[in-house]
Amino acid sequence: MRVNVDKIKVFLRSNLFFLFFVGGILFFAAIILLSVPLISNAKRRYIVHIWSRYNCFILALICGLKVRVEGLEKLPPPPYMILSKHQSAWETVTIQAFFPDVILVLKKSLLKIPVFGWALRFTGQIAIDRSQGVSALRLMAKKCKETFDQNRTVMIFPEGTRVSPGEVGKYNPGGVGIALSTGVPIVPIAHNAGEFWAPKAYYKKPGEIQMRIGPAIPTTGLGKGDRKEVNNKVKDTIEGMMEEIAKESASNGSVVE
Fold first, then answer.
1. Which residue range forms the structural domain that includes residue 53?
2. Is residue 115 domain-resident?
3. Which of 62, 165, 184, 220 could staple 194 via S-S, CB 3.0–4.6 A?
4. Is 68 inside any structural domain?
5. pLDDT tens, 23-52?
6. What CATH code is carried by the domain that includes residue 67?
7. Are the CB atoms for 55 and 103 separated by under 8 Å?
C-alpha cells in the first residue's frame, strides 16, 4: 500500500494546530473576561487583534499556511463598510489581524459557545438572530450606524454563509443598504482561503492564501434607489478579484492536493 506522505503531514499538522488553537482561545478569552471591569470594549478588541495575529502565526508555523495581503494602501480613512468573500473559518479567526478595530456582524448563536462566546459578548461585536427576519435587519442597521458614529469599521459577509471555492453565493443587499443610508464607503475583499481550509473542514493544507482589497466604492449622494446597482458592483468587483486569484494560484500551483 502506497502511503501519501503529504496527507499524513496535513493530518498531523492540523491536529497540532487544533491543540494550539483551542489553547489560544482559552488563554485570550480568559484575559478578556478578567478584563471586563477594568478596560473598554476597544481595548478588549485589541486583545482580539493579538489573538488573530497569534492564529496567523500558528497557521504559518504549524500548518505551513501563510497569507499575502494586497491593497491595504487602498483603504479609506474609517469609518467604512467591509464586504468580504466568505469561504472558510479562516477569515473569522484571522481577519482582525489585518483590521485591528473592525466590528463583525455575526450569528447570535456564536455567543452561546462556552468560553469563546462568553468573551465575544464583551468585545462589542454585532450579533443578530437571522430567524428574526426584518427586525434583525433593523437591529443590524441600528448597531452599524452607532459603530460608524464612533468612527469604527464594520465587516459583513454578504453571501451570508460559507461558499465552496469556485462557487458564488447570493449577495444579500443588506450591507450595501446600510452603507448607502449612512454614506460610508464600501471596501470589497476577496480571498481564496477555502482552497486551503475548506468550508466546515478540519484539515488545513499548506500554501499561501491570497487576500485582495479592492478600491473603495463611494456611496456619497446615493440612496435606496441605487442599492441594486451598487450591490451588483460589489459582487462584480469581488468575483472579478476571485477570478484573478484563481488564475494566479493555478499558474503558481500554490495548493497542495
1. 5-252
2. yes
3. 165
4. yes
5. 999 999 999 999 998 888 889 989 999 999
6. 3.40.1130
7. no
Q: Residue written as cell 491595504?
A: 72
In this predicted structure, what is the pLDDT of residue 124?
86
The pLDDT of residue 88 is above 90? yes
Across the chain, which distance is largest between two alpha carbons, in Å? Answer: 66
Mapped onto helix, strand or coil, the DSSP state of residue 223 is: coil
* pTM confidence score: 0.89
Of 242, 230, 237, give the one whose Cα is nearest residue 188: 237
* 102-107 and 153-156 strand pairing: parallel
Q: Please name the residues in contact with 68: beta carbons below 8 A apart, sequence gap of 6 or more.
A: 208, 209, 210, 211
Whether the CB-CB separation of 242 and 192 falls below 8 Å is answered with: yes
Number of domains the chain contains:
1
Place of cell 460608524: 148
User: Would you call 144 helix, strand, or coil by DSSP?
Assistant: helix
